Amino acid sequence: MAKKNFFKRFKLRPVRFIYVFYWFLLAYILAALVFWYISLNKQNRELSYYRIDMVDVKSPAYLNQINKIEIERRKKTSQYAGEGITFFLLIIAGAVFVFRLVRKQLNQSIQQRNFMLAITHELKTPIAVTKLNLETMQKRKLDNEQQQKLINSTIQEANRLNALCNNMLLLSQIDSGGYIITKEDVNLKSLSEECVKDYSLRFPKRKIEMQSDEETMIVGDQLLLQLVINNLLDNAIKYSGNDDVVQLKILHDGKFIKLQVIDEGNGISKEEQAKVFEKYYRGAQRQTKGTGLGLYLSQKIINSHHSEIAVYNNTPHGCIFEVKFKSNNL
Length: 330
Prior knowledge:
Elements: H1 2-54, H2 62-139, H3 144-175, E1 184-187, H4 188-202, E2 207-212, E3 217-220, H5 222-238, E4 245-252, E5 256-262, H6 270-273, H7 294-304, E6 308-313, E7 319-326
Parallel strand pairs: 2-4
Antiparallel strand pairs: 1-3, 4-5, 5-7, 6-7
Helix pairs in contact: 1-2, 2-3, 3-7, 4-5, 5-7
């Protein structure tokens, strides 16, 4: 544990150094700007005193010349102040822009590093389980029940691996603009029933319920919509207890068709609800397996269908992921 904390602190040092150096450099620039203003103003004042000393006291235009010199001094002071304020605002605006850009890049770098660790674990786990199951069946004589149990476990891990690869490939295509969305008539109720049936077979110990009163037709890409439903079901199962019920509901309220996936887990805090759809985001209290791609990809797909996806708190606990389609097609 101590070794882990040491490496964690060691990794944070370069980031802290960058921030400290950045703020030090900004403070130095602002101090130089203030020094520049004070120096120019002092020089302007001394020059004005020198010009006043050079004016002949006995001259009839003495007072006019003094006033003229004073007016020029004030104009110069105003000019320096205006230039200083302008430079100050430009420096602050540039500093804020650069700071946000650097912070964003650092956060993305940390997220990508965490993603690579997560994706490596997610890829190795099903491969290791599949290999172990196959080696067990190869080396030992098992009864039919034990064999079926190992086969089902292998199929489940293969499905996990397949879903993960699909998410990654599809994400790459959508982000690069290489995926062309097809528009076809999709029976949302039938598609949801297939997804629920598939997950009920994959997780026989979990209770997954579906509620829909009538056939629901929308226009969209069936493959992508199926992926969204699978991601939401997978998310609900992953973040709720084994005895909790996962529900999928299709509702009609006139203008919209709503698909809701409801779980009874620990829920998501208000602060995290605005972040769960970000790329690579993993909640602080979400310690289960995952890559942080499922919800991000789901939002990209739903947005490409000109629809909306959101998350709400469930009562008394858990959360509701809701996809809202327009009733008059997409």
